[in-house]
Design goal:
39% of the residues lie in helices and 15% in strands. It is α/β, with parallel strands linked by helices and 366 residues long. It has one domain: 3-Layer(aba) Sandwich (Aspartate Aminotransferase, domain 2), CATH 3.40.640. The strands form 4 sheets. It has an 8-stranded mixed sheet with strand order 1-9-8-5-4-2-3-14, with helices on both faces. A 3-stranded antiparallel sheet has the order 12-13-15, covered by helices on one side. It has a two-stranded antiparallel ribbon with strand order 6-7. Helix 1 packs across helix 7, helix 3 packs parallel to helix 4 and helix 3 crosses helix 6. The structure holds pyridoxal-5'-phosphate. The site of pyridoxal-5'-phosphate has 15 residues, from helix 3 and helix 4.
């Protein structure tokens, strides 16, 4: 049995007729940039998350960048975030000349430790960017409360968590700004690059829409510096088709994740799920020692694995000098050596999952 790490082909087969129809509709009307599918998708995504505004953009990275630009983040400003994330989270901060300030994670969820954020705040702090890692939101109420106390903005990097819930509210709509990604392997993916920004703030939404198209207020009238950051119509069409069974996919992800948890209970340690929120399991991640040997054995048995992420961002050559660490990031260091993600997708069968679980338990010698 060979198992896909993420099975995108099975998803395409299931949605083939809708996806093909949607794509051909765009080819027929020919409005490849800002065609009608863009506003249609924005409306549907806003409705899904409950956020007042949705602005589709060229990628998840662009969503984060445009959000920071809309907040007028400047050189010298500090943005608090986690070092245990994909590089894009810190990259956009650095691109604007601001300083990523890394706060350590909780060892059980691998999300930013809200209890350590306040100690990182200085007179230069402008925003907090928690990441909903592996698909599970961080302690957003606590983070929002700290932000309110110090007049900061919270931007949720929800690139991995579209569809997840926190205390009954949807990820992307848990703070002033939420950013997600439609990279093909994310819980809601397109067939190229894409992303979206969510906010209830009318003024910010208007600024973000302008920044998305070169800072123009209307055609060839540029009131601010922007980027070429639109999501193209074809990619919006793909996401629209995928939304048709997204609710089912989220349910499947919750079920498959819960089943992994049950089957590993007492045998393999896994990322902890907090009872007041869900994870959409962009990754299903376990903690192992001797990771390389374990991965090699699983690979030989036909089970692909991945590491998210092997090196905390404060230890990356490009970021070491321009970032700051608040206190220490010992938990990030420790977990970077232990995390291992297993195959996960809405189409993973019970048989495949049983096979993976048996092999992992066997390999770990338990
Ligand atoms: C994927 C990802 C991004 C970037 O999204 P792209 O669409 O690939 O630009 C940002 N942050 C996190 C946490 C991600 O997982």
């Amino acid at each position: 049995m060979t198992i896909q790490f993420i099975d995108l082909k099975a998803q395409y087969q299931a949605l083939k007729s809708s996806i093909d129809t949607r794509i051909h509709k765009v080819l027929d009307h020919g409005q490849y940039i800002m065609g009608p599918e863009v506003a249609e998708l924005e409306g549907k995504l806003a409705e899904y998350t409950g956020a007042r505004h949705c602005i589709t953009v060229a990628s998840g990275t662009e969503a984060l960048l445009i959000s920071l630009m809309a907040l007028d983040i400047k050189p010298g400003d500090e943005i608090i975030t986690t070092p245990f994330t994909f590089v894009a989270t810190a990259e956009v901060i650095a691109l604007l000349g601001a300083t990523p300030v890394f706060v350590d994670i909780e060892v059980d969820t691998c999300n930013i430790d809200a209890g350590k954020i306040e100690a990182a705040i200085t007179s230069k702090t402008r925003a907090i960017m928690p990441v909903s890692l592996y698909g599970q939101p961080a302690d957003m109420d606590e983070i929002n409360a700290i932000a309110a106390k110090y007049g900061l903005t919270v931007i949720e990097d929800a690139a991995q968590s579209f569809g997840a819930e926190y205390k009954g509210r949807k990820s992307c709509n848990l703070s002033t700004v939420g950013c997600t990604s439609f990279f093909p392997s994310k819980p809601l993916g397109c067939y190229g690059d894409g992303g979206a920004i969510f906010t209830d703030d009318e003024k910010l939404a208007k600024i973000m829409r302008e920044i998305r198209v070169h800072g123009q207020e209307r055609r060839y009238v540029h009131t601010r510096i922007g980027v070429g950051g639109r999501m193209d119509t074809l990619q919006c069409a793909v996401v629209l088709a995928k939304l048709e069974r997204f609710e089912w996919e989220v349910e499947q992800r919750l079920k498959i994740g819960a089943r992994y948890n049950e089957l590993f209970a007492g045998k393999v340690s896994t990322v902890t799920q907090r009872p007041d929120r869900t994870s959409v399991f962009a990754q299903y991640t376990v903690f192992v020692d001797n990771r390389e040997q374990v991965q090699e054995k699983l690979r030989a048995a036909g089970v692909p694995t991945a590491v998210h992420y092997p090196i905390p961002l404060n230890r990356q050559a490009a970021y070491a000098a321009l970032s700051k660490v608040s206190g220490n990031v010992l938990s990030s260091d420790a977990m970077a050596g232990r995390v291992m993600s297993l195959p996960m997708s809405a189409d993973l069968s019970q048989q495949e999952q049983d096979h993976i679980v048996t092999l992992v338990i066997e390999t770990l010698g338990k």
